[in-house]
Design a protein that fits this description.
The chain is mainly beta. The chain is 8% helix and 43% strand.
């Protein structure tokens, strides 16, 4: 049965557009596929395998408790699992065929390439449009919130809610969150409420854009973005004392920890610079 029978042709096209817009809005709030550790069982042991359905590298740390089993690699160990790959991490084989065997394991994962080597010569673009200067409200080692290893080299720019956020460096979108409408200055309450975009760069580091407004993500998982592309809209979600954009570049240390890395931006005349609190930055 054709539900468009008797309708003008343009009406059918309008309904298709409405459905497409509805689906894109729904997809923005659907949970992304999560990495999984699966066990391929053997008659004399097992193989522990990580499946990475994401568009970026994962850093995975595995530890295990073994009884009458020998691991093919020394554990605990941290591994890199490339995007969209199924990677065997370790094979466990029975040591003494006359005795029973057993095992238990624990694993954790992090976005980013294990042992990523940040490019110290790369100069980042300011993450906002040209012709729209923004004032720095917090920079490296800021006392309000940039005193953790994950954020000590982050920069915050004052940015009215709904302002365009641009990619500071080219890469692949590996994680997004856009469903929060909560924010405030109580870290314990709001730390995990921020909307964000994470983009993996060519050197394996991760660009982090945080505090975006609800439904303020303009990119999709797996999308490749160029430097300067519009990727989102700024907001005031998460641990925040006012509307702004928080930007940092991070690298994974192991499956449960990551650190911010020092970066420099392209300033006037293309010169390298580090943003200074209270000053205006403009895209040259």
């Amino acid at each position: 049965m054709n539900i468009n029978r008797g309708l003008p042709r343009f009406a059918g096209r309008c309904w298709l557009r409405v459905l497409a817009i509805w689906w894109l809005g729904l997809a923005a709030h659907l949970p992304a596929a999560e990495p999984q550790l699966v066990v391929d069982k053997l008659s004399t042991g097992a193989v522990l395998v990580v499946e990475n359905p994401t568009a970026g590298d994962l850093t995975v740390t595995l530890q295990a408790t073994l009884t009458n089993l020998t691991a093919s690699v020394l554990l605990p160990k941290t591994f890199n699992v490339p995007p969209d790959q199924r990677v065997p991490l370790v094979t466990l084989q029975r040591s003494d065929p006359t005795r029973p065997w057993s095992y238990g394991y624990n694993w954790k994962w992090n976005y980013g390439r294990f042992e990523a080597k940040p490019d110290p010569e790369f100069l980042y673009r300011f993450p906002f449009p040209a012709g729209q200067p923004r004032r720095v409200v917090q920079t490296f080692h800021g006392t309000f919130s940039h005193h953790h290893p994950e954020s000590e080299f982050a920069v915050d720019w004052d940015m009215p809610e709904g302002s365009t956020v641009c990619a500071a460096r080219a890469g692949v979108v590996i994680a997004i969150k856009s469903d929060s409408n909560e924010g405030g200055a109580d870290e314990a309450v709001y730390r995990n409420k921020a909307n964000y975009i994470k983009i993996q760069h060519s050197d394996g580091t991760i660009g982090l854009y945080v505090h975006l407004k609800r439904d303020g993500v303009m990119v999709k998982l797996g999308q490749r973005v160029a430097e300067g592309d519009a990727i989102g809209l700024s907001g005031n979600t998460g641990y925040s004392s006012g509307p702004h954009l928080h930007f940092a570049t991070q690298r994974a240390i192991d499956g449960s920890s990551r650190v911010a890395v020092p970066i420099r931006f392209r300033g006037p005349g293309g010169a390298a610079m580090i943003p200074v609190k209270g000053r205006l930055n403009s895209v040259p």
